[in-house]
Amino acid sequence: MYCDFMSESEISHDPIDVREALRGAGLQVTAQRLAVYQAVQATPHAMADDILQVVKNELGVISKQAVYDALNAMAEHGIIRRIQPAGSPARYEHRVDNHHHLVCRQCNTLIDIDCAIGEAPCLIAEHDHGYIIDEAEVTYWGVCPSCQNVS
Amino acid sequence: MYCDFMSESEISHDPIDVREALRGAGLQVTAQRLAVYQAVQATPHAMADDILQVVKNELGVISKQAVYDALNAMAEHGIIRRIQPAGSPARYEHRVDNHHHLVCRQCNTLIDIDCAIGEAPCLIAEHDHGYIIDEAEVTYWGVCPSCQNVS
DNA sequence: ATCCAATTCTTTACTCTGTCAAGAATTGGA
DNA sequence: TCCAATTCTTGACAGAGTAAAGAATTGGAT
Q1: Quick check: is A104 in a domain?
Q2: A76 with A121, same domain?
Q3: Is residue A6 part of a domain?
Q4: Contact A113, B125 (CB under 8 A)
Q5: Is residue B3 part of a domain?
Q6: Nearest nucleotide over every DNA/RNA strand to the A29 CA, judged by C1'
Q7: Which residue segment(s) compose the domain that B54 sits in?
Q8: Which of A's residues 51-80 have CB atoms within 7 A of nucleic strand D?
Q9: What is the spatial distance between Cα B117 and Cα B115, in angstroms, rounded to a whole number?
Q10: Is residue A3 part of a domain?
């Protein structure tokens, strides 16, 4: 989905070696984490509960807490990315390059928008107020094609 | 839609006539709503529960639901604005012009960042994928001065 | 190959935001 | 002044996520 495994420009969202990434982050490699990662990869922008269901199908059993732990640990170490548009529970994605999101105000559908700049932060604030800014998160809000037809 | 009744030179955070704004939106003017608006104005980026406390001090009693109703109604009609940075409950602000936010990853402090463009959407996505985009929400993430000293 | 400490997973209970629903009270136009 | 529509109060509830403690697993050291 989203042609993530096709290397059009070879820059970013190719599948990564999760085991290696986990070890590199000082995290243990467990069946649960691998399954959670695969679920995130296979289900773009899924939320924790979706992941839980997918992984249950895969592993048979896994606890809610294990899913949250895995998601949090991997997100914290940049192996996956957590996004959370206003009004939505947290969603997860395996693309960790700097890109943005476009959300439909009506049906909440969310799609990726590539970033023209690429590297974070891709925008510079006029006045940083002394903050050390490392990311400019951009969320575009609008109405998706199918919701335009409905209304 | 955003502050259309204000002249160019005062496109900003001057106090507005809430009664008038409420009536203009077809909403009734009630003591609860006025108090909620004043609390939002007096407590920048406060969350619903903070507002509840502030208004309780003001009015003596008000229900949680009345606060939520007032916040939602006013946000829906552009009298106040709801923001919700990832990981935080909803916050409210009386500035309804197009501006952005800078959040400290450590202490979650949130400050306003003026938008150089001013009018929404201030950024254009390269590919709109058929969406009708009306807003580009920008959230800068970083570390605030005092957290820089602590670490 | 075995062992052990550290990490991770399971289970259960719980917190925190926010919503739902029904009846009482208020608002504002006729 | 009166009345219908809107809004507020009260209390129960739902969803997302966290806390804590003990069991199981991982992976490096022997």
Answers
A1: yes
A2: no
A3: no
A4: yes
A5: no
A6: D26
A7: 8-93
A8: 64-65, 68, 72
A9: 5
A10: no
For the stretch A43-101, pLDDT in tens is 999 999 999 999 999 999 999 999 999 999 999 999 999 999 999 999 999 999 889 99
Q: Does B147 touch chain A (CB under 8 A)?
A: no
Q: Are residues B24 and B83 in the same domain?
A: yes
| Chain A touched by B136 (CB under 8 Å) | yes
Look up the CATH number of the domain holding residue A62.
1.10.10.10
* Strand A132-143 with A99-104, pairing: parallel
Q: Scanning the structure block, which residue is given the tokens 């077809």? A: B26
Provide the whole-model pTM.
0.84
- Tallying the residues shown for chain A, one arrives at 151
Write down which residue in A72, A93, A114 finishes a domain.
A93
Give the chain A residue whose CA is nearest to the CA of B82: A86
**Cross-chain residue pair A131–B138, CB shorter than 8 Å:** no
Contacts of A113 in chain B (CB under 8 A): 125-127, 129
Contact A102 B129 (CB under 8 A): yes
| Matching residue, tokens 């997100």 | A75
Q: Name the minimum distance, in Å, from the CA of A26 to any CA of chain B.
A: 21
Q: What is the pLDDT of residues B22-63, one digit of tens each?
A: 999 999 999 999 999 999 999 999 999 999 999 999 999 999
B72 alpha-carbon distance from chain centroid: 11
Number of domains in chain B: 2
